[in-house]
Design goal:
heterodimer, A: 479 residues, Aldehyde Dehydrogenase, Chain A, domain 1, Aldehyde Dehydrogenase, Chain A, domain 2, 2 domains, seven-stranded mixed beta sheet, five-stranded parallel beta sheet, B: 363 residues, 32% helix
């Protein structure tokens, strides 16, 4: 069976503890993944400063070029995978096998990862607001006509990564170009992308020592978060809650992303159905930037009906079908549990599964031995309802009616808001809201991202802090 | 294994079985006799409508009791567990669990001393020298471990230094998300241990938990401090941890993993070897306790050698009678060993059927 080792400072290490991740359809073990014990991770991080110094020997400019080369290797080359090699097509098939994502979606995510590596200059320019990266090489410089100096907040970036969708890996990749060694804990069903990104960078000339790849358990993930100078944590409600008090850790929990229709546009909702449907269902609803709610001042039921009628047309297709629009669950029990949670919530008066009438069977569906949750649109009559603000790993959204004047106060933490309105007051309210992570003004799908925009915090600011800085020239000092 | 050795082990297995059957009869007589019996069991037998003294002739007959319910150990009065035959002896009460709610209690008069004296026989002079001092770095408070390790050290002619760790507090800190505070607490524990280790050169043996051992070894070389043997337990251990400890943490200091709990006592390990994938194989302190591997769906059926099942514990001492208790662990059934000619257990870990989770949210 294919085996993925731990990478300890780039060196493969085969653990005696292994996890076997099954193929989502056959449930037979598909890949064996070495598991790191917590102490091993801690031990490797004891000399984090020495590892950090290795990357300081490179100029950012060199690392940018490496990233650009690595992008091509990632997309086109056959790269090492444990004791074997992996072609780009095998990479696509492997992700599909363990996560259930159809090939077409994996390829889109692959291109997203490729994009961030290839467009790294634009990404970094967005994160640093156009600063000349030589400032990071020298430790100081001039930006926007001002003296600036930045220092690293830690010697590495730890990342506890998710399984839901490979595109998420585009978030940590820029760290390596910003001279921060990486300590990655891949998800059990998506070990593929981080490993392949690392191999692409190594092939492009990046020192292997700056990459730690530690498949591990919950305790090992905690060790990474405890031991790394800076970290990112992707997790569900429970996982991120434990770390909310640690400023060293950037938390990526549920997105609760929303589309808002203003009073001025709600009557023309049919014009925006494509945008809303794209926001809910693209990538099979697996992203934190997928909309999980549509907030409207009126016509909630009518809009829910229109969305349900369209989304109910999405049906399971084979993994390699280019028209596949929905992914099965890698673990069928998860699908069953989610569906039960939704049914439990529907027992509370005020919510109805509008899609039910458009489906021939239940929400849980079987196709070619796989278990799916079919798209589900709820009409919910109050923001107080237990299902008004829920997010699940499939195309799911609640259409919620709420007076426009009170919407922004009520939305709560929301990763992406797409606001379809020309109402200046509503726009200003959203612009001022601390709850909104990304704001799209106009009919822009929540899934559309700009490379030059930060996502849930700015990685540059997470890795570096600015200090006050003044310098007197050497001649003056000697006077 | 040669034929002669196999025959020898089979012979010894038969002797072990006969001894176990005889011991079972003696213990059942003890706990169910009106003169020496345990109030809980006397009451149980009166309600059950059968007399274990007449119907239990061998170890296998203990199946007639069904499975022991651990809920019986929660709450009082704990005196119901003191056999009349042990009356007048000093009573200790030890607890297990208790992170939330009422912990399970086990009273003991002599067991912890006897168990650890038996265990002492399995420790080598080379790695756990007689007369050497010990340090115990781990849970104390209501746990039997603290007194037991101290008794072990004393039994071997040593003195046991103590550094306390409160695992219930650690669990609370994790629940509250106070991970930084948890680290500080761990550092507080380790700092105390290092101070003692550096100040007392006759400390040559350590008891500690896997996590604390890792943390200590991040700071010092135990070999350079003169440590010869480490007795490690208290929480789950994996072969990978044992390998890591042997290959990367200990510089050749002897590592003895153990499996034990307040209800059973202490199981001894088969020496670790790389050839065997650092498998952790334990043998129970027969006949005082038996750990068996049973079919989770039919817990009277012992699974085949090498097969996975749930751990079933039976404790048979003058202090305590616990028949057929299903632990929250699973493992593989292991063949007898030349040193321990009775069944063992391999790679004990939490029972997988108890783990389930619902993910809320996409991230």
């Amino acid at each position: 069976m294919l085996h993925i080792p731990i990478l300890r400072k780039g060196r493969p290490y085969r653990s005696l503890t292994v996890n076997r991740t099954p193929h989502h359809r056959t449930r037979e073990p598909f890949v064996e993944i070495s598991q790191a014990n917590s102490g091993l991770v801690r031990r490797d991080l004891l000399d984090a400063e020495a590892t950090w110094r290795i990357l300081q020997g490179f100029r950012c400019e060199e690392l940018v070029k490496m990233s650009q080369r690595a992008a091509e290797y990632f997309k086109d080359d056959t790269l090492p995978l444990g004791d074997s090699m992996q072609s780009p097509e095998e990479y696509v098939e492997s992700i599909s096998a363990t996560t259930g994502l159809p090939h077409v979606m994996v390829r889109k995510n692959m291109m997203k990862i490729y994009g961030v590596m290839a467009e790294i200059e634009s990404v970094l320019s967005g994160l640093t607001r156009g600063m000349d990266l030589s400032v990071l090489d020298e430790g100081y410089g001039v930006a926007g006509g001002h003296n600036v100096s930045f220092f690293p907040r830690g010697y590495n970036l730890g990342a506890v990564l998710p399984n839901n969708s490979p595109g998420v890996h585009s978030l940590w990749i820029p760290a390596i170009v910003m001279k921060s060694p990486l300590v990655l804990k891949p998800g059990s069903a998506e070990p593929w992308s981080p490993y392949r990104v690392i191999q692409a960078f190594i092939k492009a000339g990046c020192p292997p020592e700056v990459f730690g790849y530690y498949p591990t358990d919950h305790g090992g993930a905690g060790t990474i978060l405890q031991s790394c100078g800076r970290s990112m944590l992707f997790g569900d409600v429970g996982a991120v809650k434990s770390w909310k008090n640690d400023p060293r850790i950037e938390l990526h929990g549920p997105g609760y992303s929303k589309v808002i229709l203003g009073e001025d546009c709600v009557d023309d909702y049919e014009k925006y159905l494509d945008v809303i449907i794209h926001s809910i269902s693209e990538n099979s609803g697996r992203s934190c930037i997928n909309a999980s709610a549509v907030w409207v001042p009126r016509k909630g039921r009518e809009i829910a009906e229109a969305l349900a009628a369209r989304l109910a047309q999405i049906q399971p297709k084979p993994a390699d079908d280019p028209e596949a629009k929905i992914a099965p669950f890698a673990d069928p029990r998860v699908a069953e549990r989610i569906s039960k949670m939704i049914d439990g919530g529907l027992n509370e008066p005020g919510a109805v599964d509008v899609t039910a009438q458009y489906r021939s069977g239940g929400r849980v569906a079987q196709f070619e031995g796989c278990t799916y949750l079919l798209p589900t649109i709820l009409h919910v009559d109050s923001v107080e309802h237990g299902l008004a603000n829920k997010e699940f790993l499939f195309p799911f959204a609640s259409v919620v009616e709420h007076p426009q004047a009170q919407m922004v106060d009520a939305i709560g933490p929301t990763l992406v808001v797409t606001a379809i309105t020309s109402n200046e007051h509503l726009k200003q309210q959203l612009l001022a809201s601390p709850h909104v992570g990304r704001l799209n003004l106009g009919p822009i799908p929540t899934m559309k991202i700009g490379w030059d925009q930060p996502h849930e915090g700015n990685l540059f600011e997470h890795l570096y802090a600015r200090r006050a800085f003044q310098q007197q020239s050497a001649e003056l000092v000697h006077h | 294994m040669s034929t002669a050795t196999a025959t020898d082990i089979e012979l010894r297995q038969q002797q072990v079985k006969e001894k176990l059957d005889a011991w079972t009869r003696e213990i059942v007589q003890w706990h169910f006799s009106p003169e020496t019996g345990t109030p809980f069991w006397l009451d149980w037998a009166a309600k059950a409508g059968w007399d274990p003294r007449k119907e239990v002739h061998c170890y296998a007959d203990l199946d007639k009791f069904g499975n022991f319910q651990d809920e019986w150990l929660r709450g009082g009065p704990v005196r119901k567990w003191i056999p009349k035959g042990q009356a007048g002896k000093p009573v200790y009460v030890f607890e297990t669990g208790g992170s939330t709610g009422v912990p399970k209690s086990r009273v003991q008069m002599e067991d912890f001393r006897i168990d650890y004296e038996m265990f002492s026989e399995t420790l080598s002079e080379e790695h756990f020298p007689k007369g050497a001092d010990w340090i115990s770095i781990g849970p104390s408070g209501p746990r039997r471990l603290r007194l037991a390790v101290e008794h072990l050290a004393q039994h071997r002619g040593g003195i046991c230094f103590m550094v306390d760790l409160d695992p219930r507090w650690v669990i609370k800190l994790i629940k509250w998300g106070e991970m930084a505070m948890m680290e500080r607490y761990k550092t507080h524990v380790i700092d105390q241990a290092l101070t003692l280790l550096k100040a007392h050169p006759n400390i040559q043996c350590i008891f500690t938990t896997p996590k604390l051992l890792e943390a200590i070894c991040e700071k010092v070389s135990l070999k350079k401090l003169g440590i010869k043997g480490i007795f490690c337990g208290g929480t789950e251990m994996t072969p990978q941890f044992c390998r890591f400890a042997v290959e990367e943490l200990l510089d050749g200091v002897y590592f003895a993993p153990t499996y034990g709990n307040t209800l059973m006592g202490l199981a001894v390990h088969k020496p670790l070897t790389a050839d065997d994938g650092y498998a952790i194989v334990y043998y129970p302190p027969t006949p005082r306790a038996m750990i068996e591997v049973v079919d989770p769906d039919n817990p009277t059926r012992i699974v085949g050698y090498g097969e996975t099942g749930r751990v079933r514990l039976t404790t048979l001492t003058k202090d305590t009678f616990i028949p057929r208790f299903l632990e929250r662990d699973e493992c593989e059934r292991e063949r007898p060993h030349a040193l321990y000619p009775w069944d063992g257990v391999r790679n004990v870990r939490p029972f997988s059927r108890f783990s389930s989770s619902v993910v809320e949210g996409v991230y």
